[in-house]
Amino acid sequence: MLSSTAKRVPPMPDPNDPPAIEMTGMNKWYGNFHVLKDINLTVLRGEKLVICGPSGSGKSTMIRCINRLEEHQQGQIVVDGVELTNDLNKIDVIRRDIGMVFQHFNLFPHLTILENLTLAPIWVRRMRREQAEQTAMYYLERVKIPDQAHKYPGQLSGGQQQRVAIARALCMSPKIMLFDEPTSALDPEMVKEVLDAMVALAEDGMTMLCVTHEMGFARQVADRIVFMDKSEIIEMNTPAEFFSHPRHQRSKLFLAQILN
Amino acid sequence: MLSDAKTRSIIIQCAPVALAAAFAALLVSTTFANLRARGIPIGFDFLTMPSRIVISEAILTYKSRDPYYWAIVTGLANTVFISAVVIVFSSVLGLVVGVTRLSSNPLAAGTCRVWVEVARNSPPIVLLIFLYSLWWKVLPPVGEALNPLPGVYASMRGFVVPAVSMDVATAGLLVIALALALAAAGWAAARRGWMPPLAAPAILAVGVAGLWLADAKFSVDWPTFTGSNFKGGKELTPELSTILIGLTIYTTGFVAEIVRGGVLSVGRGQWDAGHSLGLPRGKILRVIIIPQMLRVIVPPLNSQYINVVKNSTLAIAVGYPDFLAVMNTIISKSSHSIEGVFIILGVYLALNLSLSSAANWYNRRIAIVER
Ligand SMILES: Nc1ncnc2c1ncn2[C@@H]1O[C@H](COP(=O)(O)OP(=O)(O)O)[C@@H](O)[C@H]1O
Ligand SMILES: [Mg+2]
User: Fold this and answer.
1) Which residue range is the domain that position B316 belongs to?
2) Do the beta carbons of residue A150 and residue A69 sit within 8 Å?
3) Protein residues placing their CB within 5 Å of the ion ligand 2
């Protein structure tokens, strides 16, 4: 469960399992602008990656390619054994299994929290309404806001909205969760409640890719840290190594700025 | 006392009203005095007298022995019918055209773009006159009428479509059956969360079977060609068809632009969220984008609907007797021009205020809940 008292040992990523995500020689351009250069990244099942780097380095673009919110032009992306191509059916299958949490929550403002959570299970998973609502309430309890179920997103605080967004993604029982700066739009006092929900998710063994500059979180849950700069992956290492012995000048500079 | 904000605002608001009222009173009393001096009758008594005017076609039943007020109602019914049909069709088409303009298919998007540009940049009266002139240039004489759909004929004399006739009891039964079927479908949708794909045909089948069992008096009158004319069916004259088609094409252009702006006003994040949950594009459009867009587009849409009512007066260009045309005839026949003008102003004001209040009510109902 979510509470930190009931901590359990997460299943260790097994290198012999087929990887959750495999990107090989991936390139992407926006017009003439080379936004992703030769990305090679393998994410094992149950692995937690934190992606960091200066603004504009291509972090969002990279994780948005994983569920085809952006299209890549070269190389391969294989998610759970399925290669991402223009095949719309495959894209749908892959999207069902990947949850995503955005910087600005992107809740549906005209629907109640409960409706936000049940929409996709009902329409995509063809779940019956009662069952979808039960699932929704279960996840709302896990992110500790079951009492807000019948309110509208506009009536909730930023931290609450982001926890609803996490619950909404979880309602589709995804195998992989993507987070794009989930706490950067929040007031400082609300950052912790969202990170707590993410830590709990990590403890449950979810495969996670988080773009974040919360270095405390990175230290606590990340198996590896991916550092990006100027459209490239510059460095990839365990948090302990990355923080104590950054290999590249640019990583050092970035860490110095982030940790002042 | 004058420095009190409330008092001051009352005084500031009352002064112009009083001025306007005084001006109106002066105008009315002078007019009355002048008319009386010249021996012109004034008053609304004429409304109950037989009109003896001819109305070339009407949605309601009208004979020239009918009194003036019935002629007015007949003209009004024509205007309301035109406006309602044009509003419904241009809303549906405008939605489709507006959304298609944003599609990634260049041919579809381009076609819709041409439609929008043509509609928005031509004076509606030119569009109507052009379409009206096409009837005799493009469509064949009655003897060689086109038959695009079974039971539908198009020729120089207009359209002929099958007429459905039923008695009152049958119509009532049909309404009740449909209401029950819709309620059942709604209940199922609420329980399951989604409508089973066969729901619509099933509802229809149940309805038809029910009508057959109830031995309902229900018949479809198919038009048949008799050699020189059509027998049976319902005729749509070239005049009525032109005004309906022309105004629909014209208004669709404006509605489509409003819809396009509405779709663009909903942020890209909503699409991202929908896609990331695995929802297909059409579903995102219907349950996420369009409901949010409605809040933005209802006010400008309402202005377009008001324009439809106003543009329906262009019926006069093709000789269709709308409310204004009928009123013109009434005024020249009865010489009650002052009363006539007041009726005209009052009716258009009432029509447009009803549209606005409906829009306002709807807008309040769908307002987003904020903290
Ligand atoms: N839709 C787009 N069209 C053109 N350029 C874009 C688009 N989206 C992002 N970019 C550019 O791509 C670069 C990487 O953006 P992004 O992935 O958002 O960076 P990050 O998330 O690391 O801050 C930036 O320079 C940005 O301006
Ligand atoms: Mg970003």
Assistant:
1) 68-136+244-366
2) no
3) A 60
Angle of helix B238-265 relative to helix B124-138, nearest 10 degrees, comes to 130
Structure tokens at A89: 């059916």
User: Which tens digit of pLDDT belongs to each residue from B140-149?
Assistant: 888 788 888 8
Q: What is the CATH number of the domain that holds B328?
A: 1.10.3720.10
B72-130: pLDDT as tens digits:
999 999 999 999 999 999 999 999 999 999 988 999 999 999 999 999 999 999 999 99
d(CA B272, nearest CA chain A) in Å? 7
Does any ligand 1 atom lie closer than 6 A to the CB of residue A207?
no
Number of domains chain B contains: 1
Residue B362 within any structural domain of the chain: yes
Asked whether A231 lines ligand 1 (CB < 6 A), one says no
Please tell me the pTM assigned to this model. 0.82
Residue B342 belongs to some domain of the structure:
yes
Over range B330-349, report the average pLDDT: 91
CA distance B76 to B105: 43
Chain B residues inside the 8 Å CB shell of A168 = 277
Strand pairing category for A74-79 and A82-83: antiparallel
**b/e B267-283 (16+ beta carbons within 10 angstroms → b):** eeebbbbbbbbbbeeeb
Give the separation between CA B226 and CA A132, rounded to whole angstroms. 62
Domain assignment present for B6: no
Q: Tell me if B333 is assigned to some domain.
A: yes
Task: Verify whether the Cβ–Cβ distance B369 to A120 is below 8 Å.
Answer: no
Among residues A232, A201, A240, A195, the alpha carbon closest in space to that of A213 is found at A195
Q: Give the closest of B276, B280, B292 to A109, CB-based.
A: B292
